[in-house]
Amino acid sequence: MSAQPQTLAPRRKRSFGRTVKNYVALTKPRVMELLLVVTVPAMILAANGLPDLWLVLATLVGGAMSAGSAGAFNCYIDREADRLMKRTKNRPLVTGEISDRNALVFAWVLGVLSIAWLYLTTNWLAAVLGAAAIFTYVVVYTMWLKGRSEQNIIWGGIAGCFPVLIGWAAVTGSLDWPAWVFFLIIFLWTPAHYWPLSMRYREDYAAAGVPMLGVVRGRATVGLQVILYTWATVVSSLLLIPANGIGWIYTTVALLSGGYFILQAHRLYGSAIRGQEGKPMQVFHGSITYLSVLSLAIAIDPLLPF
């Protein structure tokens, strides 16, 4: 009796909505959201009030595309390492939802569009800064430092500081000292924010061969570095107080939220020197809250009539 021919199940076609969702995931929307949170306050401070709403929207769209392009390039370059990490196992290039080629084309198109958009809707300085942000994150951090140095997040984190400069440049066409202070705050904040995450996912990074500080150093060393950068972040935040438009709300928030951020960092270090894991993710999420609240205070003060 002859065997019946097997009927191959038809390949399920992915829905348009799911495809869009996967491309959005390539842009790392959570990172993008955090970057855009600091852009609007920088623009309000630069204008010492509400800037033109169209300019705000145009800058946010351009900034989102720049950050999304950098995120997509990062997913493409890190796709092999992502396959080895539990934290990144659901990324579209790992699951095969998006092909490597399509991801690379998407990253390039989004990057070129972001620079052109910023140039046409804001000014040349904002466009140049957008290009610099992509270059720093993709080349300096992802391709050069991430797999080679435990200091990767320090210098690679500069890319996350550019949205402040882009926002300021979009309003003024220049870069004044308060913009650089805001830049410094985020630069110092980034290691204090990210190193607790490297403690939590130490095994993941080790499996992928990424020398994050949490992999190559013990908990006590990482905890101490988090304390140092947290203190530096809070101190640098006070340098913004003399800026035009900054008042008592920002000063109060900077002191109170900064004190809480420092307290969390010391608790993490205290756990580390006792040989305990502590709560690194509490510090990680707390750092996001700190920067968000600080940015909100920056946005509120220039809008007050007193």
TrEMBL record:
UniProt name for this protein: Protoheme IX farnesyltransferase
Keyword Ubl conjugation on entry: no
Zinc-finger as UniProt keyword: no
EC number: 2.5.1.141
Keywords from the UniProt entry: Cell membrane, Heme biosynthesis, Membrane, Transferase, Transmembrane, Transmembrane helix
Compartment(s) of residence: Cell membrane
Transmembrane portions of the chain: 31-47, 53-77, 98-118, 124-145, 152-171, 177-195, 222-241, 247-263, 283-300
GO molecular function, one term: protoheme IX farnesyltransferase activity
Topology relative to the membrane: Multi-pass membrane protein
Main location: membrane
Catalytic activity: heme b + (2E,6E)-farnesyl diphosphate + H2O = Fe(II)-heme o + diphosphate
Alphabetized InterPro entries for the sequence: Protohaem_IX_farnesylTrfase, UbiA_prenyltransferase, UbiA_sf
Protein function: Converts heme B (protoheme IX) to heme O by substitution of the vinyl group on carbon 2 of heme B porphyrin ring with a hydroxyethyl farnesyl side group.
Gene3D superfamilies per record: UbiA prenyltransferase (1.10.357.140)
Pathway: Porphyrin-containing compound metabolism; heme O biosynthesis; heme O from protoheme: step 1/1
Record's GO cellular component terms: plasma membrane
Pfam families tied to this protein: UbiA
GO terms, biological process: heme O biosynthetic process
Record-stated family: Belongs to the UbiA prenyltransferase family. Protoheme IX farnesyltransferase subfamily.
Misc: Carbon 2 of the heme B porphyrin ring is defined according to the Fischer nomenclature.
Class of this enzyme: transferase
